[in-house]
Structures are given as structure tokens and as C-alpha cells.
Design a protein that fits this description.
Arc Repressor Mutant, subunit A; 107 residues; 5 helices; two-stranded antiparallel ribbon; 4% strand; 62% helix; 2 strands; mainly alpha
């Protein structure tokens, strides 16, 4: 995904208690999740390097905001947004193959 909806009010409400470094880590982890369209890898050393922040900060944010699974660290809201995005891509592709949207009837 090259863009995603960012709900400022929700974000601020959920992150008021974070330090500046934790806030930055969370934003970068969200960006990583959306760009890769997949869960955050379990290799936290590599993830910390990728988002350019300390390991302890990265692990703290992952533990607080993401669910650890066998596939990696997941976030239900991210998964939902990615699924919605993929559905829209499929819809747009199907419309494109049929010549695009229907033309409006002239009145």
C-alpha cells in the first residue's frame, strides 16, 4: 500500500503515554506493516535496524500494540485496512478489464 487512512484522533488517544522514541517507533512500524502488506517479522533485531531505532524501544512498542503470532507481529486494524485495499484493487482491476466504469447515459 502506498497510502493508508491515518485517524489522528484515534492515534493521539492511544499514544499519549509514549515517549518520543516510542511514538516514532510505532509510526514507523505501522508504515512498515502497510508498505509490506504483511505482519512485522519476528526478528526484532532486523526490525529495529530497519526502522532505525533501538531494540528495547522497538520491542516495547511491538509488545504493547501488536499481537505476536507464528507469522509475525500482527495488528487487526492494519489487517482490516490491507484486506479492504486489496479488495478495492481487485475491483478496480476487474472494471479495467471490462473497459472501465459504465458511461453515464446521456439525457
Amino acid at each position: 500500500m502506498i497510502w493508508y487512512k491515518f485517524r489522528v484522533g484515534d492515534y493521539i488517544t492511544q499514544t499519549l503515554h509514549l515517549s518520543d522514541a516510542e511514538d516514532l517507533a510505532y509510526r514507523r512500524l505501522l508504515d512498515l506493516y502497510y508498505l509490506s502488506e504483511s505482519p512485522i517479522p519476528l526478528d526484532t533485531d532486523a526490525v529495529a535496524r530497519r526502522i532505525r531505532l533501538d531494540l528495547d524501544v522497538t520491542e516495547s512498542v511491538l509488545a504493547e500494540y501488536f499481537d505476536r503470532t507464528d507469522e509475525g507481529y500482527r495488528d487487526p486494524r492494519c489487517d482490516s485496512e490491507i484486506a479492504r485495499y486489496r479488495h478495492q484493487v481487485e475491483t478496480n482491476s476487474a472494471l479495467g478489464k471490462r473497459g472501465g466504469r459504465r458511461k453515464k447515459a446521456e439525457s
